[in-house]
């Protein structure tokens, strides 16, 4: 069966790129540089649902994207979370945080209503992050 992205993720994000194991999405909330990695395998709910041979490569993609986001956004801190309470499909949030962001120092969830990117800003951040991510990681053929 072909990989299927959960409808809520489709509605709230835009695709940045595809890595070997994960689709990289951008949360459409301009208050935070916020990426979501979704392992491109169906029927996964939690990290421990990844097979033994997929766990380490997916963790490496999380590590790599976290480093890119830190560098490209000059983040003070990176938050990584796999909650899945609203969306049961396994997905990993990677959020660049700053001491002056809208939710600091608390979590981003439920603090402010999402503020979608303006069209030009969305194009710019997609290009910037997509280029940076693809620059150091081979995308699938």
Automatic annotation (TrEMBL):
<keyword id="KW-0378">Hydrolase</keyword>
<dbReference type="Pfam" id="PF01230">
    <property type="entry name" value="HIT"/>
</dbReference>
<dbReference type="GO" id="GO:0016787">
    <property type="term" value="F:hydrolase activity"/>
</dbReference>
<dbReference type="InterPro" id="IPR011146">
    <property type="entry name" value="HIT-like"/>
</dbReference>
<feature type="domain" description="HIT">
    <location>
        <begin position="2"/>
        <end position="104"/>
    </location>
</feature>
<dbReference type="InterPro" id="IPR026026">
    <property type="entry name" value="HIT_Hint"/>
</dbReference>
<dbReference type="InterPro" id="IPR036265">
    <property type="entry name" value="HIT-like_sf"/>
</dbReference>
<protein>
    <submittedName>
        <fullName>Diadenosine tetraphosphate hydrolase</fullName>
    </submittedName>
</protein>
């Amino acid at each position: 069966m072909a990989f299927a992205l959960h409808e809520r993720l489709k509605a709230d994000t835009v695709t940045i790129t595809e890595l070997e194991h994960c689709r990289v999405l951008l949360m459409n909330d301009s208050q935070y540089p916020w990426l979501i990695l979704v392992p491109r395998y169906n029927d996964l709910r939690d990290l421990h649902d990844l097979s033994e041979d997929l766990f380490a490569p997916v963790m490496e993609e999380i590590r790599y994207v976290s480093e890119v986001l830190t560098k490209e956004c000059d983040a003070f801190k990176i938050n990584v979370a796999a909650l899945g309470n609203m969306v049961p499909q396994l997905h990993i949030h990677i959020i660049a945080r700053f001491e002056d962001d809208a939710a600091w120092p608390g979590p981003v969830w439920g603090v402010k209503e999402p503020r979608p990117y303006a069209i030009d800003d969305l194009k710019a951040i997609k290009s910037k992050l997509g280029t940076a991510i693809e620059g150091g990681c081979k995308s699938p053929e």
